[in-house]
Write a sequence for this structure.
């Protein structure tokens, strides 16, 4: 159901949607370890997994149990932090050691101090379904799907500003480099661009039922997938032009390798990985090894893509041709 990786330890983490186990996969040996999250009889519905590479910790939502499981990456010890109702989406601010959890049925965001293990609940709009962090400005953006707003949380004092967007905002992405936020309004058939400096908005028409959005902070290009399958919309903020790129049967998630300018799209219906060249918009497809390729994670250091396969209960590792790392990535890695 969800997948993430820790580049510091070369470990991949996969969680099932109705399971009570987190699977840890060693990237180098491909061996796996099962980590129980709850008692066998407990109700578990996991929606997301997030990795903290600095603390070597893994966070897993439990939508039914209304808590977050915290897994120690070394000992595999598991502890639980209560949240408000239906913790659905998470975003981690490594600069402040704060984890932000969108509690869908409570109309709240739970703020977890990952060091002190304390929480604070912040009221937001109706049915928060997506959340993202701008670590540079310490602003947290929450898409409230049933109030057609985005809540902007100031991470310094937890104050909230409300920004009106389009109909049924269901996904968002933050461009840290350009201090912009892009919101996919599924029933409004458009994107809302929010200025991180002023919260001013503008609308971008992209296509019917946008459901997923990602942004390449290096190029500024925005990539949008739709509930109606067939294309990815590529919006260039410099020109204001939107281009449609064929991208498989159904697009479920978008991930970007900014340093190689590659865009990866999960296509569960076609059971394949779609790769878009960010420079040319040319696409290639790679067949999945499992079935119903659902979620993906990208490792730019090894040029690999990890996929969670929803119905075959396994994960696929896509290994690309080694590419030359850019100067910016080498500096990021401290080499």
């Amino acid at each position: 159901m969800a997948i993430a990786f820790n580049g510091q330890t070369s470990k991949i983490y996969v969680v099932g949607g109705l399971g009570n186990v987190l699977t840890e996969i060693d990237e180098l040996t491909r061996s796996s370890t099962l980590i129980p999250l709850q008692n066998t009889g407990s109700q578990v519905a996991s929606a997301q997994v997030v990795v903290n590479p600095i603390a070597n910790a893994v966070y897993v939502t439990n939508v039914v149990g209304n808590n977050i499981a915290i897994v120690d990456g070394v000992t595999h010890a598991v502890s639980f932090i209560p949240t408000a109702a239906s913790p659905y989406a998470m975003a981690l601010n490594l600069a402040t050691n704060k984890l932000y959890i969108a509690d869908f049925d409570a109309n709240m965001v739970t703020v977890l101090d990952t060091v002190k293990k304390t929480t604070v609940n912040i009221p937001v709009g109706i049915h928060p379904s997506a959340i993202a962090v701008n670590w540079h400005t310490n602003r947290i953006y929450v898409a409230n799907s049933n109030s057609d707003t985005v809540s902007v949380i100031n991470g310094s004092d937890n104050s909230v500003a409300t920004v009106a967007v389009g109909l049924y905002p269901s996904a968002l992405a933050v461009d840290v480099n350009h201090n912009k936020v892009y919101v996919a309004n599924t029933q409004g058939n458009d994107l809302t661009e929010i200025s991180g400096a002023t919260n001013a908005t503008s609308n971008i028409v992209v296509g019917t039922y946008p459901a997923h959005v990602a942004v390449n902070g290096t190029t500024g290009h925005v990539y949008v997938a739709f509930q109606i399958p067939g294309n990815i919309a590529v919006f260039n903020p410099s020109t204001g032009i939107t281009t449609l790129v064929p991208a498989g049967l159904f697009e479920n998630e978008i991930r970007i390798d900014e340093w190689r300018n590659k865009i990866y799209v999960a296509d569960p219906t076609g059971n394949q990985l779609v790769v878009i060249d960010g420079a040319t918009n040319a696409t290639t497809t790679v067949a999945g090894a499992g079935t119903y390729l659902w979620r993906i994670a990208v490792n730019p250091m090894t040029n690999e893509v990890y996929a969670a396969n929803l119905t075959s209960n396994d994960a696929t590792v896509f290994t690309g041709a080694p590419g030359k790392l850019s100067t910016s990535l080498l500096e990021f890695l401290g080499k």
User: Anything to note?
Assistant: Confidence is low (pLDDT under 50) at residues 323-335. The longest strand covers residues 87-93.
